[in-house]
Amino acid sequence: MLSLLLLLLISYLVGSIPFALLVGKLFRGIDLREYGSGNLGSTNAFRVLGIPLGILVQLLDISKGFIVVMIVSNFFYQNLPFYNVTPFEDITVLKILAGICAVIGHTFSLFVSFKGGKGINTALGMLISLAPIDIIIAFGIFIIILLSSGYVSLGSVVAAVFFPIIMFIRENIFNVEIFGYKTLIFFSLALSVFLIYNHRSNIKRLLYGNENRFEKLWLIRFFYIKAPLRKKKSQ
Questions:
Q1: pLDDT tens for residues 143-161?
Q2: Whole-number Å distance between alpha carbons of 12 and 110
Q3: How do residues 174-210 score in pLDDT, each as one tens digit?
Q4: 23, 50, 177, 212: which has the fewest C-beta neighbours closer than 10 Å?
């Protein structure tokens, strides 16, 4: 039990590393909490710090979720630090616990007064190692929504909704065997609700038309081209 608690604590601390804050101070000399939305996520980093540093923050945040799951895979695959009383797969449960702690750490960071980002990227890093095909499809949906609307938040929410749906369809309709499916499907539903809840302010702004849009990423636009009016010829 002690080793389990230590693992969860380490996962939380890894997730708590405020990379957006560190990158902002290191490369721009600014506190990202004082600019833009004040959020320590990659979206605000893109908006304030620019695309290159925004990508750096995103990759670092993704790595947090990925690293904690890899720690579990390498150190606890043979000897689990607890007796699993659930009907779910042992190692999958442990990976999920570690991943959840990393996402919570990112959202409620110990190092920045228990504030942070929305948790999308850290959850993405965790899911890459747990359900890579499903997360790739969900990420594709995110890209389509982003390019056709310019809203990162809308793409994130839609992808979060579709992730458990994709997993359910692949396993039950296309008969694709997903390792740990019976555990992951329940977890993915809970994670989806958690991520949508974290975006509640964004959803409200979307409904009222006040959400910030990335105009440069709004590449797919549906519009009408009006023919120019012709002057009537004098007779």
A1: 999 999 999 999 999 999 9
A2: 9
A3: 999 988 888 889 999 999 999 999 999 999 999 999 9
A4: 177
Q: Which residues contact 188 (CB under 8 A, 6 or more apart)?
A: 131, 163, 164, 167
In this prediction, residue 72 carries a pLDDT of 82
Q: Three-state SS across the chain?
A: CHHHHHHHHHHHHHHHCCHHHHHHHHHHCCCHHHCCCCCCCHHHHHHHHCHHHHHHHHHHHHHHHHHHHHHHHHHCCCCCCCCCCCCCCHHHHHHHHHHHHHHHHHHCEHHHCCECCCCHHHHHHHHHHHCHHHHHHHHHHHHHHHHHHCCHHHHHHHHHHHHHHHHHHHHHCCCCCCCCHHHHHHHHHHHHHHHHHHCHHHHHHHHHCCCCCCHHHCCCCCCCCCCCCCCCCCC
Instruction: Quote the CA–CA distance of 143 and 148 in Å, as a whole number.
Output: 8
Q: What type of residue is 227? A: A
